[in-house]
Amino acid sequence: MTINFKDALGVHGDALQVRAERTKVLAANIANESTPGFTARDIDFASVMQERAGEENGELSLGDGDPLYRVPFHPSADGNTVEIGIEQAAFSQNASDFQTSLTFINMKLRGLAKAIQGQ
Fold first, then answer.
1. Could you list the residue range(s) of the whole structural domain that residue 45 is in?
2. Looking only at Cα atoms, what is the longest distance across the chain?
3. Which residues have CB under 8 Å from 54's CB, separation 6+?
4. CB 65 within 8 A of CB 22
C-alpha cells in the first residue's frame, strides 16, 4: 500500500508553495525600492488557495494566481509604488506564516512515521 502525500498533507503543501512564491514577490519589491517606475506587487493568498481548492474539486478556475499590483498609500514622484515599511511588514508576516505551514507539515509527517512504525 502506498502513501499519497498530497492527500496526507492536505492543504499545507499547497499553502507552503504559495507562501514561497509570495516570498519571492515581496523580496523583489524590497530589492526594487529605489528603482524609478517599479510597481509593487503581491499575491492574494486566500484567492490563490481557493483557486487551488476549486481545481482539486474539478471546478473551472477563473483566475490565474498572478501577482496583483499594490496601490500605494503615498505615491512617489518617480512612479515607484514600493513602500518599504509595508513591504517589510508583509514579508515578516509571510515568513511567520511560512514557518507555521512548515510546522503543520512536520507534525503530519511525524504522525505518518509513527503510524508506519506502529506506535
1. 5-117
2. 64
3. 60, 61
4. no
pLDDT in tens, 17-52: 999 999 999 999 999 999 999 999 999 999 998 888
CB environment 48-77: b (16+ within 10 A), e (fewer):
beebbeeeeeeeeeeeeeebeebeeeeeee
Total number of domains constituting the chain: 1
pTM reported for the whole predicted model: 0.79
Look over the chain and give the mean of its residue pLDDT values, rounded to a whole number.
86
* Helix 84-117 / helix 11-31 crossing angle, nearest 10 deg: 150
Residue with cell 490565474: 64
